[in-house]
Every structure is written in structure tokens, then in C-alpha cells.
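In response to the reviewer comment on reproducibility (Comment 2.3), we provide here a single inverse folding case reported in full, input and output, so that an independent group could reproduce the run without further information from us. The C-alpha cells appear first.
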């Protein structure tokens, strides 16, 4: 069985989808399961069948017997075959289990269509017979077993023995070339004696392709369709038919053939007998050609009617009934119409008919029929990422009917028949009417109906039904109005010309939908109520979409919503008339990349890059970007599904290569493609021109070696030269080859000169152009010129004269600038002083509900701060109810073993002695242990005591003050985790609100002044590193904002007209954020809106324009840097607008080179500024949030109700006791121990990481400010006096005056805790309550599995240690048993 692969769900989020699309995008692909067991063959699959307790697969020359879980049981080969692919061209044609006889019939194209009878158990061959099945690769073979008499088994076999008029290669008998259906006896496979041919094809008729064979009552049925004839002989499309046979008196005879009517579809693709209901389902397809929305259909036929019509008489000759009666489906029309059906399997579950449908683009659908045989809109159970066509035969798991096998190409996967986990409530579950899904009221969750039972949950006292879904009453209402009645009421009806002959662009649309679809037609301007009707699968609801805009009489624009992948019909209706004739549009999956050629390019751009993959024709553009805000948009791939080519843009690089992301943009979604390596431009170092071979010229170019791998057709070489001061016609060389040596690359160019003549080498210039695309030529040149000494001397003389003149001018200008600079510096200092004294403390007290994380996410973020998505494995599958009696024995024993104190302590010490047991391993092991023992906190605390005592023994000989200072041992990380668990309630109830208020206040303060959107530096900050000192003048601006669109049914009480305060230097995106926050403060809810979904328009009178950070009016500075648009720019008179591609250089308030003082000014660059002038902004920010910081600190070292948190009191008492027992008299030692165990180990970690506690994102700027506060917090616990000078860091100076006061409060805090009483029973009661409170929050089994991985890695060392320790003999035996259990699981691939 192949590995279980998961699809990467990571993708950059939507850039800016319009409001109506936001929810629809999230629905696409909902409920699709990605990770499933699978088995892969080395060749394509030919046949699949179930055999009672196993699955059979055949492909090429190979036959596999698989366990239901898809692990391999047996492998056999066709007779004479060496492996699956040799001899080449072999195909399996028959795979028919005989469960009653314990045999398996297999047929192959080898040996003129040989057939073997095998033992079903081990697949060994009993008998072999040639000329039985079709020997043609495209030929068909179907068969069915029946027993006309007890003990006698016969095989009715239909096959295609010939596809052309040529003599067939294989026939069931040498004298009967037209035979297609025969009967054979088992096991010898010989023809029965009552005649060789049961059914023949007409002598001049087309060959027959048999799709299935099945037994129903006394009748045998063989559905088939005629192969299409060549165009020359094509008269009319032949219809699929079914041959009906009945066995009487030991031999079946043909009754007649019935024509299957499924809407004039000529091909039968798949078949499924629903024996319990007496129905047969078939997937029918139109003739090969243009793919349409209605190309395929599912039709269901009544077996009783099929048998009765088969029994009716008809004229026949030579076993062939010449009259084919038409057989209609049970609904007289197709049950379900779809564009791409390829397979069907029908079954009955809880008296409901369930249909599993495969598609040609790799989807597994599930449809459920109601009592009127009408299907619901099919659910997408699974999608094959490769989008391969589903094999025509779907097979249910023979052991567990909750699974079905999905075969395609050379692979089969085991898929669950229901996605019940998507139902979140009883009502939602029952509304789906999926018989595979039930609802457990006690656990408030879905369950897969094992064994298909029905359960009704009632309240025993009141007999009240706890879960009931009533069917809605649907009332039909019609209203007929004539024209005269409308005229009498002052109304009238117009009859404009109808809309017809429409076309649509584009025809290919991704499942994300498409904005700005253009529909062409006629008579649009005179029509009203124009709507587009989008129809897909026939049982799904149609989409009626209003036209966005009528562009003119022949063009309208519409937005098509996200939908599932399939072909759909589009028509237009207007004026209450019928829809126009439909046309087909194609919804396809998102584009994806498989490879890129080449994978490198040069910095100056212009190289042709080709992407390979699928569905590129729905790509709007290719985006080239990196993590440093570089972003380019290049043209998309119109009309090309694959490959897609584009030219690389120019990117400024340093000397090193750089990886750039290539993404595909579809609507507002960026789909990651492949990384492109940008490297410096090629460097040409020399050349040699050989003219002695006149008239042949040979030119050798030399360049430095690089990884660009330039090809011959990507280089153009041109030589120019002069004669008698006249420039001659350029000579264009052809590159012969490129060779690479150890130190350089040689490019050989040759040319035969048409006009022989001498070339003056001193006038030669050689030009090298990268890439052969004229529109993007980037030229590199190097040349040899002789410089004249006289010219050089003249330049020197002129330079001296000019320098003296310029020096006088510069001195005068410099004096003026210094005076101006002095005035500006004085003004800045005075303004800063005035602001510090007059600034109002405007911290907002109301900040809404505190967005606390739940306990499990808080715990995992503190346990695994750097593990990212790794921690998520501990909360997956936590809602699955597992019977404790069914718990894994190996994990149960391991849990019991680590609950042995002596073993666990020995294990930890043994691991820590291993050299390659790194600090990271120690931290992970401690976190795994915390999770595994989360329900046994009393025991975990006891282990913590023992390990801490051992750590003290290690530290007592050196420096006891260093204990617990770092996290270098298991016990130190264990202490951090223990504090997190025990203080989570105190953190949430007491510290959480002041802490969130601090984060909110910092954000408010930062956004009060200018913030550079590129560097995130701000004028108001606590951290000097994040200070925006290159600031320009700014003013507040009050904007009147009107929200034009609010989701329906939610805008009744919403204030759509609000006032928002922004700064004139804010970018458009910054202004949007502030407007968004103002809307939230005003209305208290976002109504589902997202910032990325909001656009900003400026209205002035009758004019309006969309505001963007970059548009056609953006200012471009001298050095090519593009300045982002700001509010002051937007409020200026309307500039022109045009679509531009993002430049790789852009700025907001800081230029890239403005970190260094600018002595001179030029257009667009700011004046000389002094950073130290703005340090008062740090102090003003500190003053603004001072009360918030003090409240936070006091909440941390407060004692609510004169009682310390139990965990803190207990551990501080433990440290006091240990110091007393070790006769440590220095009080500083205990103070440092307490500081290292609580503030340093827990509180600082929380203060610097608010995202551990709240559902928020921490910006780098906020991180810098919190670091300053956390440093002040830790200084308050320090025993050393700070000696700060004028050159001390600003983060130390900010809180220098506050630290002494904080230190006194900390000392009082420590003393108060020491003086409080605490009983041992209180500690045990607290730990027991915490254990129960967080029971089953995290997955202990996963943690135990991770712990065992460490045990397995160092198993020999651990066992050796246990052998040397007394009293651990039982633990040693248990460990040996546990290892055996885990090894057995590994063999079974359960781990």
C-alpha cells in the first residue's frame, strides 16, 4: 500500500474579492477528503472485482489479490509472462470470481485470448484454454456464471473477436467468425454441445462492445453498444442495447435484443445491477466529439420490464432477433444528466437508493434517490488530484460496506462512502438524508451508521424526541394575468426582440468563478430583467445571475460564481421570455504546475520561461514575487491549457542568487507554482577575433562560469567596426556551440563574410544580446578603443578650472543650508518638548470582548513555541469516542510504565546523558511527557520535585544562582509547562484583560502617528529600532465614509455613514484599515466583512475614482523608486488612472538610502534629519501607556483575596524548603531561584507573546515594544542595582526611574507569598481539579507514541541502565514487552 499523501492547503489568501463572492469561495470543494489508502500497479488497471474477503486487480500481465485495506496478499502472472509489462501490449479481459466453487476465471489477450481457471485462495492455475476471450487490446469481454442444475456451473461469455473486416485473430471456433456470445462448461472451459453460437453479430453490421453481464432470476443480460463505424459508412448513430437470454432445460437461449433509450446517447460506459430493488443503472454518453454539459447521463431501467419485453416474441433467424424494441427508463427520461460521468455503482441503504458516480475528471460523486426516484444534487465525496478518469467499474468493500474502491489509471484507493463529519448539528445531518450518516444526540456529533441501524433518542421522563426533522410543506401557487387586466391597472407589456445566438468569453472558468465574463448576443439594450441561467448537473439547483452591466446592444458583462468542476450550460433570458439556446462553459479545477524550464534567469530579465502543468487557460496572470515586497505581474496564458510561457521581468540583485516565487493568479487567489532562481547577469570577460581565415570569421567570447545554463539560441552576437572613420554595416554572428571549462565558458561564433575586407581591430565593438526576443533586448557590450594622451590632458585642464568655480558656489550654498538646518533642528526640539507636555492620554478603555484562545491552543503554543503546525497533531481526532477496552495495548502498557516513578526518573537521566539528545529533544520530550500525564498532575508534580532536587545536586557544586536560568534540561522545560498548565486559569481571570488592554493601547498609540508601510517603523513607539525618525509633516484628516454594500438581512440597524479619522500621509491600505476599525467601533460587528473585500472610492460631485496604493498617477522618483499614493495625494485634483504593473522599487515615508543623512536634496527625497531629535517620541509613548503597564504589572504580582495562586505558593515553599535542607543561608539564592522559575520562565514568555493567549497576530513592531516592557518587568526582579550612563540603551533609560518602585513591590510580593499558609491537601485538591478540568483536551496517545520514539532510539542504553539498577526488573520486562508490541504494529504499518 502506498503512503497516505495529503494535499497542501497552504495558499496565499485572496487579494480583494468583492463582497458577494467571499462566502461562495469558501464553499468550493467543501467536504472533499484527500488522504486515503491506495495501491499502485506498474501498469494501467484493466479489471477490478471483489471476492468475498479481498479485492482482485488485474493489469498488463499481473493479477493481484489485496486485503480490503489494500495491502498485497498474492501476486500472479498471465501464462508465459515474465512481469507486469512483458510481453508488452498484454491486457486482462476477464476477472470473474466463482465464490461458490472457490475459483477465479481470468482471461488475457495472450495466446489468442486465453482463459485460466484458478484457485481463488492462492491464484494458482487449474486449467488453461485458448481462444476464449477477446485477443484484441480494444476488444471487450464480459461473462456471468450460472447453474442451470445443482452441481453444474456454466459460463456465458460475450466478447469482441473482430473489429475490422479482416479475418479475426481469435474466435471461439474456427468456423464461426461472427459469433460474439457463447456458453462454456466449467472447469474445462469447453463449449457446450447445443451449438457454438448463442448470439452473432450481423454479417455487415458493426462490431459489438459488451459492457457488463449479469444474472437476474432465470434471465441473463448482456448490455452492449455497437462500435462506431468509419465516417464513410456512417448512416445513423447506433443505440446501446441489451441481449436478453433465458436458461431452460440446461441451456440458455436468446430471447431478443432491446434498444436502451437514454436520450439518444450512443455509448454505454458503465453498468450496475441493483438486484434488491429490481433495477439496473447505466451511464450513457453521446458520440465522441465536442464535450457538452449534457454529454453523459444516468438512466435507470426496470428489470421486470426488461425481462417481460425480452420474453415477448419477435422474428429471429440465426439466433439473432432482427427487431429491437425500445426500452425506456423508469422515469421516461434520464435520472441525472452530467457532463463527464464515467462510472456508476448502485446500492440500497436503509431503504434508500444510493448511487456512487465516477467522472472523467477524477471526481467521486454520491447521489441519493427519493421515493419518486429523483436524485438530490450529488455530493463530491472525493477528488483525484491528478484528475484522471475514474475506471468504469466501482466496487464496494466486501468486508466493510462503509468504504468503496475508486480505480483510475494504475491506482486504486479506498474511499469512505460518507463525509459525515461535515454535519455540525442534528438538523443539518438529517436534512442531508444521507442513510450512511446518523446523529448521536448525547455526544452532539455525527456517526457513520455501522450495520445500518436506526436509533431514536428520547427523554425518558417526558418522552420528548430530542432530534426530529419535519419535512417542509411545499405549496404550489400559480397566477394567470392577461394583457387587458394589466392595462386596466395602468400597466403594459412590451414585446421586444428576443435575445438569441449568444456566445461567451471566456469559455473555460476555474472553480473559483470568474468576474467580468462577456456575453455576446443582440437586442440587449432594449431588454429588461436580463439574467443568465447557469445549469450543471440536472439534479442541482440552477443559478439565476443578474447581468452586471449592459455594455451595448451586443455585449453584456456578468460575474459567474464559484462552482464545482463540470461543463455547464449558459443561456440568457429577458423580458420574462424563455431562455436563449444554451451554450457550454467549462468549470475546471485550479491551475497547477508540475515543472518549469529553465529554472534560472538573469537579473535584467527577458528570458523565456515555460511552465508545464494543467488548466493554465483559466490563469489571469503569472505573478513573480518574493518575501521582500517585490511583485511583478506578467501576462497569463490565454487559450493554452499547458504549457505556458512568459518573459522574466527585470529584478535588481546583489551579487548572490535569489529565489523568487512564481504564482498563478486566478481571480483574487494566488496559487503557488515553482520557485525561479534569479542570478546576476552573465559577465563577459574577453573575446578573440580571428580574421586570418578570410573570408571566414571566427569569434570566441569568454564569460565567467555561472548556473544560468544559457543555450545557443538565447545569445545574439553583433560586431561593429569602422574604416576611414565610416561605420560599416554590422556583422551578425551565429553561435556554434557553448563549452564550459573549469574557470570560464567559451562561446564560439562563426560567419562567412560576403564582402571580404580588412577589419581594423582598434575600431571593433562586440555586442552580446541575451535572449532572441527583440522587444526585451538587454545589451552588454565591451570594446577595445585607443585613448589619445592629448585628449586626456585637455580633460584634466578643463576639470581644474571647473572645480575652482564650483568650489566657490558650493561654499556659499553650504552656508545657507547650515543656517536653515539649525533653524529646523531648533523647531523640531521645541515641538517635541511641547507635545510631551501637552499630549492627551487617549487610550481607549472600551476594546470589546477579549479574544482568549481556548486552553488546548494556549497549552500547545507554550509547550511548542517553535514547532508551528507540528503541535496540531495533539488536537486532531479528539472527538472520536473510543471504547477504553479497545485502546491500543502497547500505549496502555507504556502509559503504565511511565507512571512508575523509578523507571521514569531513570529514563530521563539516561536520555540526558546521551550526547546526541539535544536541547531541542529535551524540550520536546518534556512537552510530550506533560501531555501524556495531563490527567495525572499530582504524579507529574511529584516527578518535577524529584528532578528539581537532582538538578540542585548538580548545581550545588558550582553556582547555585545559575539554576533554572536557562532551558537546557528536561526538568527546566517541564517546569515551564507545569506553570503554564497550573496558571492558565489565573492568567485568564486576572491578568488577561490588562494584558490585552496593553496590546490594544500599543496599537492605538502606534497608529496615532505616521507608520511607514514598507518598514513598519512608526513615529510613536517604545523601541528605538522601530522609530520613524525620517518623518515628514503630517496632519489628521476626517473622512466621511459611506458603506455601499452590506450583506443582506444584516444592514437594518447598521450605520452605513460613518466618520473616520486618518492621516494625510497614510497610504490607501492604511486608511482602509482605520476605516474598517471605525466601522467596527460604531456598529460592534463586522457582518462577515473582511478588509481584503473592501474597495475605496473617492467621490467629488459627479466624478468618482477607485483609490489604490499604486496607479497611473503615482510619483516616480529620479532613481526609479515609486512612491505609494497617500490620502493627501488622493484628495488632490483627479489624476489620470491606468493599470500598471508593480515596480520592484517602491517607498512610502522612507527612501531606501535615507538611513544615512542626506546632505543635499533632490526631487522626491527628504531633508537631512537627526534621529536623536525624535527620541522624545519614545518617552511620550511610554507616558501614554504608563497606567496600562502598571495595571498589568500589579495584576501579575497581586494576591486576589489575599491568596496566592496555589501553584506559585507551592513551588516557592518547595524552593524555600530545599534551600533550608541544603543549609543555604544567602537569601539572594532563593530569590534568584524563584525569579528564574516564575517571572523568567513563565511571565516573560507570556508578555513577549500575546498570540499565546489571544487569537491575534503579533506584528514585528509590537514585538519590539513588548520586548522593552518585558525587559523592564525582569529588571524589577533583579537584585543588582542598575548603573546607567548617558550612553545606555534607550530601552533601559525609559523605565529607569520606575524600576526602584517596582523592585519594592516585588520584594513585598515574595514576602507575602512566603507568609501565607498552605495545606498539602489544598495542593492535591487543586492539582486533581486541574487534571479533571483539562482531561481529554489533548491527545495523550500521540504524546505516548512520540515518547516511545525516543525510547526506541536509545533502547540499548536504556535497557543497559535498567539492568544495572536494582528494583527495576519488572520495568525491564514491561519495556521488552512494549517494544515487541510496537515492533508488531510497525510491521502492520499502523504507526
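Designed residues, in position order:
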Amino acid at each position: 500500500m502506498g503512503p497516505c499523501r495529503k494535499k497542501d492547503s497552504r495558499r496565499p489568501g485572496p487579494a480583494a474579492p468583492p463582497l458577494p463572492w467571499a462566502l461562495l469561495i469558501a464553499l468550493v470543494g467543501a467536504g472533499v477528503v484527500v488522504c486515503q489508502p491506495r495501491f499502485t500497479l506498474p501498469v494501467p488497471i484493466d479489471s477490478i472485482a471483489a471476492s468475498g474477503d479481498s479485492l482482485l486487480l488485474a493489469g498488463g500481465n499481473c493479477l493481484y489479490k489485496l486485503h480490503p485495506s489494500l495491502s498485497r496478499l498474492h501476486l500472479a502472472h498471465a501464462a508465459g509472462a515474465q512481469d507486469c509489462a512483458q510481453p508488452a501490449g498484454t491486457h486482462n479481459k476477464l476477472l470473474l470470481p466463482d465464490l461458490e466453487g472457490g475459483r477465479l476465471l481470468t482471461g488475457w489477450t495472450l495466446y489468442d485470448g486465453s482463459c485460466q481457471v484458478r484457485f481463488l485462495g492462492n491464484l494458482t492455475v487449474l486449467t488453461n484454454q485458448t481462444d476464449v476471450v477477446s485477443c484484441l487490446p480494444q476488444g471487450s469481454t464480459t461473462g456471468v456464471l450460472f447453474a442451470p442444475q445443482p452441481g453444474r456451473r456454466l459460463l456465458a461469455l460475450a466478447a469482441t473477436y473482430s473489429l475490422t473486416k479482416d479475418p479475426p485473430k481469435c474466435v471461439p471456433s474456427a468456423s464461426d467468425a461472427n459469433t460474439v456470445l457463447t456458453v462454456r462448461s466449467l472447469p474445462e472451459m469447453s463449449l457446450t454441445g447445443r451449438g457454438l453460437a448463442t448470439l452473432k453479430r450481423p454479417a455487415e453490421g458493426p462490431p459489438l462492445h459488451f459492457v457488463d453481464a449479469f444474472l437476474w432470476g432465470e434471465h441473463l443480460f448482456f448490455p452492449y453498444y455497437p462500435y462506431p463505424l468509419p465516417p464513410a459508412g456512417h448512416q445513423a448513430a447506433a443505440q446501446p442495447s441489451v441481449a436478453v437470454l433465458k436458461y431452460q432445460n440446461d441451456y440458455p437461449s436468446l430471447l431478443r435484443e432491446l434498444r436502451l433509450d437514454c436520450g439518444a446517447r450512443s455509448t454505454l460506459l458503465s453498468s450496475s445491477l441493483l438486484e434488491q430493488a429490481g433495477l439496473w443503472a447505466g451511464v450513457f454518453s453521446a458520440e465522441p466529439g465536442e464535450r457538452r454539459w449534457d454529454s453523459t447521463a444516468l438512466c435507470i431501467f426496470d428489470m421486470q420490464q426488461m425481462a417481460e419485453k425480452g420474453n415477448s416474441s419477435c422474428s429471429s433467424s440465426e439466433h439473432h432477433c432482427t427487431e429491437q424494441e425500445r426500452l425506456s427508463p423508469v422515469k421516461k427520461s434520464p435520472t441525472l444528466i452530467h457532463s463527464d460521468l464515467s462510472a456508476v455503482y448502485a446500492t440500497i441503504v436503509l431503504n434508500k437508493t444510493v448511487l456512487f458516480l465516477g467522472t472523467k475528471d477524477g471526481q467521486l460523486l454520491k447521489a441519493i434517490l427519493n421515493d419518486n426516484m429523483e436524485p438530490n444534487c450529488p455530493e463530491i465525496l472525493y477528488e483525484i488530484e491528478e484528475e484522471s478518469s475514474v475506471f468504469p467499474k466501482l466496487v464496494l468493500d466486501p468486508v466493510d460496506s462503509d468504504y468503496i474502491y475508486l480505480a483510475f489509471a494504475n491506482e486504486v484507493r479506498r474511499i469512505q462512502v460518507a463525509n459525515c463529519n461535515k454535519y455540525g448539528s442534528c438538523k443539518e445531518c438529517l436534512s442531508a438524508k444521507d442513510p450512511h450518516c446518523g446523529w448521536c444526540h448525547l455526544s452532539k456529533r455525527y456517526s457513520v451508521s455501522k450495520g445500518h441501524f436506526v436509533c431514536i433518542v428520547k427523554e425518558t421522563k417526558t418522552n420528548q424526541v430530542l432530534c426530529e426533522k419535519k419535512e417542509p410543506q411545499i405549496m404550489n401557487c400559480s397566477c394567470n394575468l392577461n394583457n387587458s387586466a394589466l392595462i386596466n391597472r395602468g400597466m403594459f407589456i412590451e414585446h421586444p426582440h428576443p435575445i438569441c445566438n449568444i456566445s461567451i468569453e471566456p469559455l473555460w472558468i476555474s472553480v473559483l468563478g470568474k468576474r467580468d465574463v462577456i456575453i455576446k448576443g443582440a437586442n440587449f439594450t432594449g431588454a429588461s430583467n436580463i439574467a443568465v441561467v447557469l445549469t450543471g448537473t440536472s439534479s442541482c439547483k440552477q443559478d439565476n445571475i443578474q447581468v452586471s452591466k449592459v455594455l451595448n446592444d451586443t455585449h453584456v458583462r456578468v460575474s459567474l460564481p464559484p462552482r464545482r468542476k463540470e461543463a455547464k450550460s449558459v443561456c440568457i433570458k429577458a423580458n420574462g421570455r424563455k431562455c436563449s439556446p444554451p451554450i457550454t462553459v467549462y468549470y475546471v479545477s485550479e491551475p497547477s504546475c508540475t515543472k518549469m524550464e529553465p529554472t534560472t534567469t538573469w537579473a535584467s530579465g527577458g528570458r523565456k520561461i515555460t511552465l508545464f502543468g494543467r488548466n493554465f487557460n483559466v490563469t489571469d496572470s503569472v505573478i513573480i514575487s518574493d518575501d521582500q515586497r517585490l511583485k511583478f505581474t506578467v501576462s497569463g496564458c490565454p487559450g493554452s491549457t499547458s504549457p505556458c510561457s512568459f518573459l522574466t521581468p527585470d529584478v535588481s540583485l546583489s551579487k548572490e542568487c535569489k529565489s523568487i516565487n512564481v504564482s498563478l493568479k486566478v481571480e483574487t487567489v494566488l496559487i503557488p507554482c515553482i520557485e525561479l532562481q534569479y542570478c546576476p547577469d552573465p559577465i563577459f570577460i574577453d573575446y578573440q577575433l580571428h580574421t586570418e581565415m578570410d573570408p571566414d570569421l571566427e569569434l570566441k567570447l569568454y564569460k565567467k562560469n555561472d548556473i544560468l545554463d544559457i543555450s545557443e539560441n538565447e545569445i545574439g552576437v553583433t560586431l561593429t567596426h569602422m574604416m576611414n572613420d565610416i561605420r560599416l554595416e554590422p556583422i551578425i554572428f551565429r553561435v556554434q556551440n557553448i563549452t564550459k571549462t573549469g574557470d570560464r565558458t567559451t562561446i564560439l561564433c562563426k560567419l562567412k563574410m560576403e564582402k571580404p575586407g580588412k577589419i581594423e581591430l582598434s575600431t571593433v565593438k562586440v555586442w552580446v544580446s541575451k535572449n532572441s526576443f527583440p522587444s526585451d533586448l538587454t545589451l552588454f557590450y565591451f570594446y577595445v578603443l585607443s585613448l589619445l594622451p592629448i585628449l586626456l590632458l585637455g580633460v584634466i585642464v578643463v576639470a581644474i578650472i571647473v572645480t575652482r568655480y564650483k568650489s566657490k558656489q558650493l561654499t556659499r550654498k553650504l552656508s545657507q543650508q547650515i543656517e536653515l538646518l539649525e533653524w529646523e533642528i531648533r523647531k523640531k526640539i521645541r515641538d517635541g518638548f511641547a507635545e510631551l507636555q501637552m499630549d492627551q492620554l487617549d487610550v481607549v478603555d472600551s476594546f470589546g470582548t477579549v479574544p482568549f484562545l481556548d486552553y488546548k491552543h494556549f497549552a500547545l503554543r507554550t509547550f511548542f513555541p517553535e514547532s508551528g503546525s507540528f503541535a496540531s497533531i495533539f488536537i486532531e481526532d479528539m472527538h472520536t469516542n473510543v471504547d477504553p477496552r479497545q485502546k491500543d495495548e502497547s500505549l496502555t502498557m507504556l502509559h503504565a510504565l511511565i507512571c512508575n516513578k523509578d523507571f521514569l526518573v531513570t529514563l530521563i537521566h539516561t536520555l540526558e546523558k546521551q550526547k546526541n539528545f539535544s536541547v531541542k529533544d529535551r524540550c520536546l520530550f518534556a512537552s510530550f511527557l506533560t501531555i501524556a500525564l495531563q490527567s495525572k498532575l499530582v504524579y507529574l508534580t511529584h516527578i518535577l520535585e524529584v528532578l528539581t532536587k537532582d538538578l540542585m545536586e548538580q548545581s550545588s557544586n558550582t553556582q547555585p544562582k545559575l539554576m533554572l536560568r536557562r532551558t537546557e534540561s528536561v526538568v527546566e522545560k517541564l517546569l515551564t509547562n507545569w506553570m503554564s498548565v497550573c496558571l492558565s486559569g489565573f492568567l485568564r481571570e486576572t491578568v488577561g484583560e490588562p494584558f490585552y488592554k496593553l496590546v490594544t493601547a500599543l496599537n492605538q498609540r502606534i497608529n496615532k502617528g505616521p507608520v511607514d508601510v514598507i518598514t513598519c517603523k512608526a513615529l510613536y513607539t517604545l523601541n528605538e529600532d522601530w522609530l520613524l525618525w525620517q518623518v515628514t509633516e503630517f496632519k489628521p484628516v476626517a473622512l466621511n465614509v459611506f458603506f455601499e454594500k452590506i450583506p443582506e438581512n444584516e444592514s437594518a440597524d447598521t450605520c452605513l455613514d460613518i466618520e473616520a479619522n486618518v492621516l494625510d500621509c497614510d497610504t490607501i491600505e492604511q486608511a482602509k484599515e482605520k476605516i474598517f476599525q471605525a466601522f467596527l467601533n460604531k456598529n460592534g460587528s463586522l457582518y462577515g466583512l473582511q478588509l481584503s473585500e473592501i474597495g475605496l472610492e473617492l467621490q467629488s460631485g459627479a466624478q468618482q475614482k477607485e483609490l489604490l496604493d499604486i496607479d497611473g498617477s503615482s510619483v516616480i522618483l529620479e532613481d526609479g523608486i515609486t512612491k505609494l499614493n497617500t490620502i493627501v495625494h488622493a484628495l488632490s485634483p483627479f489624476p489620470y488612472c491606468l493599470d500598471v504593473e508593480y515596480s520592484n522599487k517602491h517607498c512610502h515615508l522612507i527612501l531606501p538610502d535615507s538611513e544615512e543623512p542626506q546632505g543635499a536634496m533632490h526631487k522626491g527625497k527628504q531633508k537631512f534629519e537627526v534621529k536623536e531629535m525624535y527620541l522624545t517620541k519614545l518617552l511620550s509613548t511610554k507616558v501614554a501607556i504608563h497606567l496600562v503597564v502598571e495595571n498589568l504589572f500589579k495584576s501579575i504580582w497581586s494576591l486576589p483575596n489575599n491568596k496566592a495562586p496555589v501553584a506559585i505558593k507551592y513551588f516557592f515553599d518547595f524552593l524555600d524548603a530545599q534551600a533550608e535542607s541544603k543549609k543555604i543561608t544567602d537569601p539572594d539564592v532563593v530569590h534568584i531561584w524563584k525569579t528564574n522559575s516564575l517571572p523568567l520562565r513563565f511571565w516573560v514568555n507570556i508578555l513577549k507573546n500575546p498570540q499565546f493567549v489571544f487569537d491575534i497576530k503579533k506584528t514585528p513592531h509590537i514585538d519590539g515594544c513588548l520586548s522593552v516592557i518585558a525587559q523592564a518587568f525582569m529588571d524589577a526582579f533583579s537584585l543588582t542595582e542598575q548603573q546607567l550612563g548617558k550612553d545606555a540603551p534607550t530601552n533601559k533609560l525609559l523605565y529607569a526611574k520606575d524600576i526602584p518602585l517596582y523592585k519594592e513591590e516585588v520584594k513585598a510580593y515574595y514576602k507575602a507569598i512566603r507568609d501565607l499558609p498552605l495545606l498539602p491537601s489544598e495542593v492535591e485538591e487543586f492539582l486533581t481539579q486541574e487534571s479533571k478540568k483539562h482531561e481529554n483536551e489533548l491527545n495523550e496517545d500521540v504524546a505516548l507514541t512520540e515518547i516511545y520514539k525516543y525510547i526506541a532510539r536509545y533502547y540499548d542504553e536504556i535497557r543497559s541502565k535498567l539492568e544495572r539498577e536494582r528494583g527495576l526488573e519488572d520495568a525491564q520486562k514491561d519495556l521488552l514487552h512494549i517494544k515487541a508490541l510496537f515492533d508488531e504494529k510497525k510491521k502492520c504499518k499502523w504507526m
